């Protein structure tokens, strides 16, 4: 496994990789969720490239950029064991050279949900992913359903900017009790860790109501709200039952829909979602 930092090293290493090339962008501090994307990529591609970059432009001024967990040595060991061919871990100076002023923005799709709560977040995500795509030139890129709006935004950007890249979205990996794996779970105290299962419980309850025939979106949102509000350590930021493609809030669930939420457990902000199909 080759590990590179600069663009020149990346280009040189990339030139020697047999195609199709699969790409998994990450912010590091890897868990089974990230590794599941690597496994998907290995199955579909001859070579796999992983990037590790905690992208400063997708964090708001009051978010956890400084505190975000990092452990490059451990990440490299896990990626070597997973059979990755090339790891690119650029510095902020490589990604954002002095005088940087060029941005990629996706409009409508980034307005609701995470975009409404985290102004500028998706501009940072799309800009960095566009730059990663330009540098790595993969045939396929792998993203997690865990970040459903991010996956939708990246799909939109890929189409709109004519990248010759197939976007593959892989299922959310969960702990045994249902909590979606996330690097941010390491912030949780033992009591908070227990409380954090409330996101999954709320989603499952709404999904079960849908399975039983409930189609009123506000009723589904209400069920999720009620469960979150019953958990003393949880503070709800939003719950949503939205159209799967446009992410606009629904009144009635007719086609494919997305249940999603953001919840503070103590100071830790967690997101999760469930697809109704
Ligand atoms: P991050 O390092 O948090 O930026 O995540 C990198 C990639 O891993 C993104 O495509 C995420 O959607 C994906 N990912 C994060 N957590 C999970 C999970 N629990 N299951 C599946 N994919 C995940």
**How much is the average pLDDT?**
98
Architecture of the largest domain, according to CATH? 3-Layer(aba) Sandwich
Structural class: alpha/beta
CATH superfamily of the largest domain: HUPs
Number of domain modules: 2
What is the alpha-carbon Rg in Å?
A: 19 Å
Q: How would you describe this structure to a colleague?
A:
- There is one protein chain.
- The protein has 277 residues and is α/β, with parallel strands linked by helices.
- The chain has two domains: 2-170, HUPs (Rossmann fold, 3-Layer(aba) Sandwich), CATH 3.40.50; 183-272, 2-Layer Sandwich (Pantoate--beta-alanine Ligase, Chain: A,domain 2).
- The protein has helices at residues 7-15, 32-44, 72-81, 92-95, 113-117, 121-136, 148-160, 190-195, 198-211, 217-229, and strands at 2-4, 21-26, 47-52, 86-88, 140-144, 166-170, 234-243, 257-265, 268-276.
- The strands form two sheets. Strands 1-4-3-2-5-6 form a six-stranded parallel sheet, with helices on both faces. Strands 7-8-9 form a three-stranded antiparallel sheet.
- Strand 2 (21-26), helix 2 (32-44) and strand 3 form a beta-alpha-beta unit.
- Helix 9 runs antiparallel to helix 10 (217-229).
- The longest helix is centred in the middle third of the chain and has 16 residues, at 121-136.
- The mean pLDDT is 98.
- Adenosine monophosphate binds next to helix 2 and strand 5.
């Amino acid at each position: 496994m080759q590990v590179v930092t600069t663009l020149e090293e990346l280009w040189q290493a990339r030139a020697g990789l047999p195609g199709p090339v699969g790409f998994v962008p990450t912010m590091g501090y890897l868990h089974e969720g990230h590794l599941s994307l690597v496994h998907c990529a290995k199955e579909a591609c001859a070579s796999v490239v992983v990037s590790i970059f905690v992208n400063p432009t997708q964090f708001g001024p009051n978010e956890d950029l400084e505190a975000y967990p990092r452990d490059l040595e451990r990440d490299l060991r896990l990626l070597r064991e997973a059979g990755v061919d090339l790891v690119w871990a650029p510095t902020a100076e490589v990604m954002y050279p002095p005088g940087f002023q060029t941005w990629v923005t996706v409009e409508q799709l980034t307005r609701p949900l995470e975009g409404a709560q985290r102004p500028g977040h998706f501009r940072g995500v799309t800009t960095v992913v566009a730059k990663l795509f330009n540098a790595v030139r993969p045939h396929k890129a792998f993203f997690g359903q865990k970040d459903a709006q991010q996956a939708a935004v990246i799909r939109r950007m890929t189409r709109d900017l004519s990248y010759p890249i197939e976007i593959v979205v892989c299922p959310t990996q969960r702990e045994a009790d249902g909590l979606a794996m996330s690097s941010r779970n390491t912030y949780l105290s033992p009591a908070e860790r227990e409380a954090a299962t409330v996101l999954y419980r709320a989603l499952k309850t709404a999904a079960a109501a849908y399975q039983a025939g409930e189609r009123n979106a506000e009723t589904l949102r209400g069920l999720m709200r009620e469960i979150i509000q019953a958990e003393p350590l949880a503070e709800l930021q939003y719950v949503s039952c939205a159209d799967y493609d446009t992410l606009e809030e629904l009144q009635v669930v007719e086609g494919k829909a997305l249940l999603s939420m953001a919840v503070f457990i103590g100071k830790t902000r967690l997101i999760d979602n469930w697809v109704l199909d």
